């Protein structure tokens, strides 16, 4: 861990880091790779060396270099007492009393009201998990996996039965994707150790992907959604236009996962990744052989890729995509996200990501509580004139098509006239 209080000569001999005071202008000078400071609750931290060890990846800290990261820190860390043990060594000082708590002329009243709302929702128990919800959710995924095998055992590998099995496996994979998302956000267990373990099991053994790859990519998206050059989902738009929704999972993501595990020497995730393929081939090769099993797996990924793209992008691609504006947490998330109407089907189909606004504001909140938090968020948005968008499912899918068409036209124009 970097000894932040001793870097760059900021502290004199015997001087307490908590006594050193800085202006925002001084903090903002440390916003470059190799020299990164940020502010949390008016305390100034040098995270330059810590970026190399940060569990969420080095880039997410860099996205907040030179800024107030209080709300992002609160959003991503359910057990702050544990995290603060590591922060002591990074402390270099605090903001001068004359400095505002927010940088870049952010609305202080809105920020305080949002933080008060979070405390209100915590007091109402909306950050507490219902164990039964997640037990039943995992159970229905495992039941689908068993059902697919039972159909093959009972009716064989004919074309009609194979299509039915493919549909069932696609559903299981999509729902497992939403479940790994819960564990990845540390929104299930009180102790994050269990979340991390179940995350590796679901995304690795059930889905054949990498937990660390997902963490490093997805938390950047949450930290700066729809911010060009900071949100990897925005950076992926050109690839999405080129390969289209069908090939995103089976080709682009799979290759990227393998590349990431290899370059980072992430052998633990690689072992979980291999366990998925070993299990899959063990159960399906007796019916289809090795090649047939691989073809079935690819077809399932092809179908799941459509499901994944429509659900994850219907709340973001049609929204505002722009360069860094240094907005407050609430305004930034509402510019980049919208909700889709609630219904039992929409909740299940999207893994409750139809409540994308609440999920982005409170990523560690168990998803079964989003609907209870939504009216409170709407009320706060109305107070400050912030648009809170809710769309129908069909409307949101049409918006994706229009947005991808527009992106494709812009990319083609740039390519033809480069």
From TrEMBL:
Q: Name one GO cellular component term.
A: membrane
Pfam families membership: Cyt-b5, FA_desaturase
Q: Name one GO molecular function term.
A: oxidoreductase activity, acting on paired donors, with oxidation of a pair of donors resulting in the reduction of molecular oxygen to two molecules of water
**What pathway, per the record?**
Lipid metabolism; polyunsaturated fatty acid biosynthesis
* A single BP term in Gene Ontology: unsaturated fatty acid biosynthetic process
- Is this entry keyworded Oxidoreductase? yes
Task: Please give the chief subcellular localization of this protein.
Answer: membrane
- List where in the cell it is found: Membrane
Segments traversing the membrane = 132-155, 236-255
Q: Where is the Cytochrome b5 heme-binding domain?
A: 19-96
Q: How does it sit in the membrane?
A: Multi-pass membrane protein
Signal peptide limits: none
Family, according to the entry, reads as follows: Belongs to the fatty acid desaturase type 1 family.
Name of the molecule in the record: Fatty acid desaturase 2
Organism in which the protein naturally occurs: Bagarius yarrelli
Cite the source lineage. Eukaryota, Metazoa, Chordata, Craniata, Vertebrata
